[in-house]
Each structure stands twice: as C-alpha cells, then as structure tokens.
Amino acid sequence: MALNMCSLPQASTVRVRAPKFCMMTLTHSSKGVTTLKKPNSPKLEMPETQVTHSMPPEKLEIFKSLESWAEENVLMHLKPVEKCWQPQDFLPQPNSEEFYDQIKELQARAKEVPDDHYVVLVGHMVTEEALPTYQTMLNITDGIKDGTGASPTPWATWTRAWTAEENRHGNLLNKYLYLTGRVDMRAFEKTIQYLIGSGMNPKAENNPYLAFVYTSFQERATAISHGNAARLTKQHGDLKLAQICGLIAADEKRHEAGYSKIVKKLFEIDPDTTMLAFADMMRKKIAMPAHLMYDGSDDCLFDHFAAAASRLGVYSARDYADVMQFLVDYWEVEKVTSPSSEGRKAQEYVCGLPSRIKMIEQRASERAKDNNATSVAFSWVYDRNV
Ligand SMILES: [Fe+2]
Ligand SMILES: [Fe+2]
C-alpha cells in the first residue's frame, strides 16, 4: 500500500505537515537528541471520539448474502501460490558459486541510481513492510472480518491470501535494497518498527463500504507508484530492480481489480449507501497507509518522502485525481440512480471532484516552480540531502 492523512497524498510538493500531524509525542533534549515520551504508544491523529462501527447491523446481512458471489468473482483475482513469483527468483542465489559475483553485479548496477530514487524506493518498502497493520484494518471491519483466524468465508480467505501475496513485496524490496549497499538498513528498519507500532488511521469506521472504497483507491494508487518507480529505475539502467517494481505494480493492479469489483457490486445492490460511502471517503481524503512513518529523527518524514515522490513524478496530486476519475468511471457513478437527495448530492460531489483536484494541483505546482524546493536530509541514505 503507498502514502496522507493531510490531503492529496504523497502528492504534496513542498508542503510542511500541519503541526497537529507532526509527531506530538516528540521532545527535543538540550543535546538535540529526539526522544519519545511514550515510545511504544500509537501516535493517534484522531480524537478518541472518532466514529467506529458506523454500518447499521442490519447491513451485515448484505455481506453474508454476497458470500457465494465473492467466492466466484473476487477470489479469482488471487493467484495460486505455485504460480506466484517469490523474492528469491530475483535475488542472488546464496548456494551458487556465482553468489558473490552476482552481488558485485547488483552493486555495480545500483551505483547508477541516484539517492532521491532510493528514498522513494525505501518509502515504498517501508510502506509494504507495515503489512500487519493493513491485515488488522481488514480484520476489524464488520461483515468481512476473519472471526477465527482461519475462517473459511470468502472475505477472510481473501484477506489472508491477499496479505500473503503482499508479504512478498516488502520482503523482496528489503532484501534487494540491502544488497545494493546504498541505503542505511538500520535507519529504515527503525522506521518500519515505528510505523508498525504506530498503526494507521484510514477513518474507515470499521465499515466495509468505506473500507472497500479505501482499498480500491489505495491499491490503484500503489500500482501507479510502483509502476512509475519501475519506469524511473529503468531509465537509470537497473533493469532487475525495474522488473521488481513492475512485478509489484502488477500484483497491486490485480488486487485493485478484486476490491473495486466489490464496490461495483455494492453500487448495484445498495447504491445509496455506497454513494454516501464513496463521497465520505473522498471528503476525508485517502490517508496513505504509511502516513505515520517516523525514523526517530525527522518529525515530518512522511511529508518529506511524499514531496520527493511528487518531485520525481512517482506519485502526485495529479495521480490522486486520476485514480478518483478512474473509479468514478469504472463504477459508472454518473449513471447510478441514488434514491435519496443526500445520495444525489454525494454523487454530484464525487463526479466533480477529480477536475477540482486537478485545478488545485495545477495552481500548486505553478507556485512550487517559483519556489526553490528545499532539500532534506534522509536517514535512509545516510543523512545525505535529497
Ligand atoms: Fe497493495
Ligand atoms: Fe504491496
């Protein structure tokens, strides 16, 4: 999954995170060392009065009644394990005589890739590695949660198999980046530990309508991010790494197909609730999964990472608007007949939003061109400025 509580995702260019979103639990000692008052507490961005379990209990029946449909139409977007690629397919073989030569070749290719690109790749990898959080999000969602840990419902089957497929992404990027010798492993390992400890807050209210809108959006956004990373890596000549990013992007697309199909079905059988859910998630703005990332020193690490991704054209507000437009078209939102006036207002809002976002983005990027983008030191690349 890719990356903003604050707003238009990793999109933001030189935006500085609003103080309330920066790490409020941080304190700076006289020596300038940053410590956490409560090092293992989640850095919650929302008050505890946040809405939870907002789906009316009678709607649980809808998800129960969709089980046979999901069995047939959603699970087909998973791949059998035996047909899946595994991280080792793209890494030097430790039992081969050529192991050390393969590492030398890998490191020679890695030299050609600039630091800002590694920052984006590490950001992707850190996001992927916080997978326990994402599985938790699905398993606290009413109507689809895995009630036993090995429940046979198609919803639970999907969640476990999706997690298992996703698990290969962080694993491969982590191992590959380690072998490049270009990134500070300890710094990003710490970032992963902080991030998993912090969790995330997509404001999906344990509500499957909201959760599936979120995951549809998120998987497509992530596919775009990894796809653009692949394109850039190819330009820098590391074809193996480009292939890795491309394969991950393809998995994300497949997952997007599953999630967005569920929302399409919900539009068909319960158009009003689904319309309101879509508009609700868009008003709240899609929080990227790693929006709480922290490395122990940079209070606004996510924003800095997002700005780097935007500058490189890996993911920007324009992509956010494109994802939205795609979903509006795919779900045929304009054609949906919403029975309530609230539903019709929501429909008008979501249909007009992509073009409004693009207009705002256009103005913001013109302003950004006038300002000199400030470079920032990233612990992930040994505190070099990016
Ligand atoms: Fe994903
Ligand atoms: Fe992924």
TrEMBL record:
Keywords: Chloroplast, Fatty acid biosynthesis, Fatty acid metabolism, Iron, Lipid biosynthesis, Lipid metabolism, Metal-binding, Oxidoreductase, Plastid, Transit peptide
Predominant subcellular localization, coarse grouping: plastid
The keyword Phosphoprotein appears for this protein: no
Cofactor binding annotation: Binds 2 iron ions per subunit.
Compartment list: Plastid, Chloroplast
Residue ranges, annotated region (Disordered): 32-52
Classification via SUPFAM superfamilies: Ferritin-like
Gene Ontology MF terms in the entry: metal ion binding; stearoyl-[ACP] desaturase activity
CDD domains noted in UniProt: Acyl_ACP_Desat
Annotated residues for binding of Fe cation 1: E128, E166, H169, E252
GO biological process terms held by the UniProt record: fatty acid biosynthetic process
Entry GO CC: chloroplast stroma
Family matches, as Gene3D superfamilies: Ribonucleotide Reductase, subunit A
Obligatory cofactor(s): Fe(2+); Fe cation
Binding site for Fe cation 2: E166, E219, E252, H255
Complexes and interactors: Homodimer.
Family: Belongs to the fatty acid desaturase type 2 family.
Function: Converts stearoyl-ACP to oleoyl-ACP by introduction of a cis double bond between carbons 9 and 10 of the acyl chain.
Stated name of the protein: Stearoyl-[acyl-carrier-protein] 9-desaturase, chloroplastic
